Amino acid sequence: MWCRPSLKAVFPNLRAGQRGGFSCGILFFAIAALVALTLPAAAAPKRVMSLNVCTDQLAMALAGPDQLTSVSFLAGDPDLSVMHKEASAYSKNRGLAEEVFLAQPDMVVTGTYSLHNTTALLKRLDFQVEEFPFTQTLESIPADIRRMGEILGREGRAERMATEFERELQSAENAACEPVPTAIAYDQNGVALGAGTLADSVLKAAGFRNLAAESGIHGMAPFPLELLVSLKPDVVIVPRSLSDAPSLADQIPRHPAIGALKESRIGTFVPRASWACGGPFTIEAVRALRTLRKDVAPCAEKTSALR
Amino acid sequence: MRGKDIGTSMKAIRLTLLLGALATLFFVLSLLIGPAELGIVKSIGGLFAGGDEAAMIIMREIRLPRAILALGVGFSLGISGAVLQGFLRNPLAEPGIIGVSAVASLGAVSTFYTGIAGASLFALPAGALGGALVAVLVLLAIAARHGSTLTLILAGIALTSLAGALTSLILNLSPNPFASYEIIFWLLGSIKDRSMEHVWLALPLMIAGWILIAFAARAIDALSLGEEAASSLGVSMAHTRILIVAGVALCVGAGTAVTGAIGFVGLVVPHLIRPLTDRMPSNLLLPSGLGGAALLLAADIAVRVVVPGRELNIGVVTALIGAPFFLWLVIRARREMF
Q: What integer pLDDT is reported at residue A16 of this predicted model?
């Protein structure tokens, strides 16, 4: 199916049509070689292209040398991508169908969240496209890691990574104790991260109550500053500025009214970009918040008579 | 002027007091409204006595700056509209329509978002004052050369469109992903989540502007008799022009720097109040300021109450009131204009 005879039919005059045939030959050779060398592994794609900052990072974490041909330009943005340093080794794409067409990868990984038109077009052009949903819970991350491992033919590495992630998540769960401190993640423009967000899942795993979710906020929604002040959360997690260029949006989480809450801890706390995408690195956010949680509200003695 | 009977001046005082009371009423109402639903006792306690920490912060850091800014910006727009209409003898002159607010927004945006002044808030009023000053100077130059009402309004529309387009362009080009969403703030205005920092930034400048405009009051009365008559009364055109340019630039620029461009307040208010006065331009200034303050406070209450939880931009409300009014004025004045 990667030979896409339809491609020549659609674009009879394009040189790329010939290139399709060329890569097709390479592909057969590759498959033959792979089958001969590693029998249990299915034909692992040799030229993988990722179009989404979240799949970029999963792919970079798992891909073999030279297997990943390009990642999205956002992968190099330290505010969105934990693996921005690794990303500098790859060529970047802007998620355009044209770029994919020119690069002729034998596998495209992308998110369901964005670029619907591109994805639909690529599928119509018979590219192999694998879509990943936007991660909204920690629990779904190991499955995403394993799935990416399967797609890339790197199951062993993925399994180790996923198991490690599950182990640490379990240990966080086991460490749950009273009292449970409260928190609100308050983003640019006064948008709170409510129920059904990755941040909510991370907060819960680290042993916090997410007051935004408890106030009925679902997803990312504006949260009145007045309500935040009246709830007096133990912790307010504010964002880093997304850019050196100023914006008014960045000023809302820095409103003096939040700073005036004397009992609250206000800070960025979460490692940069660690909960922007779900990936093996998201455990870093859990880890950082667990440390904070111990500091803010130490576990009560389990043997306490009061319990 | 001197021969005016006591009845008229009593009437003027009564009007001023009435508008002052209205503005005060809306000011207090504005302080009592908010998603935290504090209740009257807790609100007043939080404002004056301290006590409950949350109530105190909500009142002093969130609601008070908002109410003060609505009052100050409304007053600025009202008094600027009144003085511009009197000085230019043009019923449609208003900071929003003739482009002063839009160019002030452009000034604020071009200094703040380009990061010239770092992320400092001082970049906002500096840029906005500069923008407002340029706009007023350009418009006065046009008005001095071609006296017609139409020319000034058309020049204002051109200036507004240009400034709006450049504002959008700068915000679109900003590397900050949030900047492009802020186009709506700069073009329509909002007083949401402002802080006392914004009040300290804008209020002194606005007050300075009001004072300069007040000094021009006598001169615009004389100007209502025509320029030559005014000169013979010892009114210096150049002097008056400087006072009005600086005054309008200061108060509209400072206001726009912290709330974005809010339109139509300066148009509607003087027209509503003029029939209640003796039609001397100077007697319109203070009532227009107070009326503008009351209108903007009321509009700011409306944006919070109409769709709770999803705040409208305040410029939407003032435009909904002001734009039909503007149209009506244009139709009424069409014989004079065309």
A: 36
Residues A187 and A125 placed together within one structural domain of the fold: no
Domain map (residue ranges) of chain B: 64-337
Distance CA B253, CA B103 (A): 9
Quick one: B64-337 is in which CATH superfamily? ABC transporter involved in vitamin B12 uptake, BtuC (1.10.3470.10)
CA dihedral A28→A30→A36→A42, nearest 10 degrees, is -90
Round to the nearest angstrom and report the end-to-end CA distance of chain B.
Answer: 34
State the total domains in chain A: 2
Interface residue of A77, A226, A236, A244 to substitute, partner B, most B CBs within 10 Å: A226
Alpha helices of B260-313 — where are they, by DSSP H?
265-273, 281-305
Question: What pLDDT sits at residue A11?
Answer: 36
- Is the CB of B35 less than 8 angstroms away from the CB of A249? no
Rounded Cα distance, A212 and A195, in Å: 7
Q: pLDDT tens digits, residue range A151-206?
A: 999 999 999 999 999 999 999 999 988 899 999 999 998 999 999 999 999 999 99
Cross-chain Cβ contact A245/B179 below 8 Å? yes
In a domain, A147, yes or no: no
- Picking from A190, A242, A262, the nearest residue to B176 by CB comes out as A242
Give the separation between CA A77 and CA A96, rounded to whole angstroms: 18
Confidence of residue B119 (pLDDT cuts 50, 70, 90): low
Q: Does B62 touch chain A (CB under 8 A)?
A: yes
Q: What is the CATH number of the domain that holds A287?
A: 3.40.50.1980
